[in-house]
Amino acid sequence: MFRRLPETASDSAEVTLWVDGEPQQVGATLSVAAALLQQRGWAEYRLHHDGTPRAPLCMMGVCHDCLITIDGEPNRQGCLVIVKDGMRIETQMPAAQPTPGASTG
Amino acid sequence: MSENPTSSQVAEVAIIGAGPSGLTAATRLTKAGLKPVVFDLNAAPGGQVYRQVESPQADLRVTGIDYRLGQRVVEAFRRARVDYRPDSRVWWVQRVDAGFELGVLHEGRSAVWRARRLILCHGAMERPFPFPGWQLPGVMTAGAAQILLKQGGLLPEDAPILVGSGPLIYLLGWQYLQAGHPPTCILDLTPRLQWRLPLRQPGKAWHARGYLFKGLKMMLALKRAGVAIERDIEALEAIGDKVLEQIRYRQRGHWKQRPASLLLSHVGVMPETHLTRSLGLTHRWHAEQQSFLPVRDDTLSADENLWVVGDGAAIGGAVNAMREGTLSALEVIASYHGLTKKERHERDGLRRERARDLCARQLLDAMFLPSLNIDAMPEETIICRCEALTRGDLDQAISDGAEGPNQLKAFTRCGMGPCQGRQCSLNATLLLSRRLAQTPDQIGQWQIRPPVQTITLGELATSSMVENRVT
């Protein structure tokens, strides 16, 4: 888990995210991936297609291990999307997901 | 190729990336009366190094005084009122006659842009550092942890372990210390001999003195605070069932174990070459930076009307990137209407400063040369994270006859997952290089084709022109 520096905790704007159906108050400057690392940690972020758990590695759009469902759209890069009030997030834990951009080769 | 040119938008100069080099390039062009358009993947200007600089989430006591330089650069960029397009993914670029066409995805819609001149300021990425267990949740890069600190003032709840080589390891450790939450220990992978290089190269050390003193100051602060700094690390493993639970490392021949909830790793940065490779530019292996770099001439140009600057071209750091951004702007200005005497003077001064700084950089490159080789990693080490392919899987394909990167990719699917080979391309080439006893240049890297950024089929469908171009 990550937590906020005490001096920034009070005076920063927050938004409400719905993570797997539960409301979470998070800092308005965070990416979706950062908000999850703060609220839930890295233990149950995403299940990879080989059945192993994965979590964000790079946080800058390179590794694609932060893939997550945002407002119903699966496999978004959670580290590149800044949170918005009312955003619905589903962690991709239950089963293997199809990979995005099928024609990447 | 241009069935419907009216539906594309036109930029005098297109700039990709709003980090240090993109910001100074755009600001300088605007000052000269030109109208650049800046596309950036991120939501706010500053790049990775000056992320969140307009509304800092951690104070300068923690992030360090260098952050203030970023504030000034972003302020100048804002004052210049540049046509700035954040949250924009440039997912393909191709040459059209003497100029370029770009596919730009913004808010789920793709648009085609035409530009006569193009400055690539897309920046660097952390060098992928595979070791057994690096795919476990609880292992992140030091750069990722620093992004969390800048973006939201986020710190690890429990003290992390830092491992790797290069200035960022000590900078992050020092920042956590400043915030009152130092790491438990730092496993420094820099071979001891490399720390002595400044003594043997006093000339370069003089140019690098600013960097060296800063590093030394941080290291001493960490030692004084009781952070263990372990050296002579020969091997490393992350262990855990579903998340990281402990790390093992071999130090001077002995295996040691430490409980760990968060391991932050880093072995330097390297240019992100997807864009430059997709444009078919020549890249050469640079042994000192252990990376492939796009080939540029003295004017930082890689091809006609195309400049590549900042850490996306060669690692030189933020200050050098700002200089290169301004230099590329001056070259663009020169290509329009030549330079005034004053502008020539400005250019020559920047070139001199750049040469001095790159001299210091050579010493830093040599000091922090990555030490753990990919071919020496245990065979279960995952190389391609997306396709979960191990070093053993790739070695099998090489012994089955894969003679180059494109074949290795076809044999194994290495590099064909969502990250498009960003995490495995270099290591696949290095493994082939060792096994086939050829230089990295002889092996080369696999071809990059669009999309160079992730795009969904739905987003693809928004672009009517795309079908004619990229299928």
Walkthrough of the structure:
The complex is a heterodimer of chains A (105) and B (471). By secondary structure, chain A is mostly beta strands. Chain A is 11% helix and 30% strand. Chain A has a single domain (15-90), classed as Roll (Ubiquitin-like (UB roll)). Chain A has helices spanning 6-9, 32-39, and strands at 2-4, 14-19, 22-27, 46-47, 53-54, 67-70, 73-77, 88-90. A five-stranded mixed sheet of chain A has the order 3-2-8-6-7, covered by helices on one side. A two-stranded antiparallel sheet of chain A has the order 4-5. Chain B folds into three domains: 5-126 and 270-338, 3-Layer(bba) Sandwich (FAD/NAD(P)-binding domain), CATH 3.50.50.60; 139-267, 3-Layer(bba) Sandwich (FAD/NAD(P)-binding domain), CATH 3.50.50; 374-438, Orthogonal Bundle (Arc Repressor Mutant, subunit A). In chain B, helix 11 runs antiparallel to helix 12 and helix 13 (391-399) packs across helix 15. Chain B has 471 residues and is of the alpha/beta class. Chain B is globular. In chain B, helix 1 (20-31) links the parallel strand 1 and strand 2. Helices cover 38% and strands 23% of the residues of chain B.
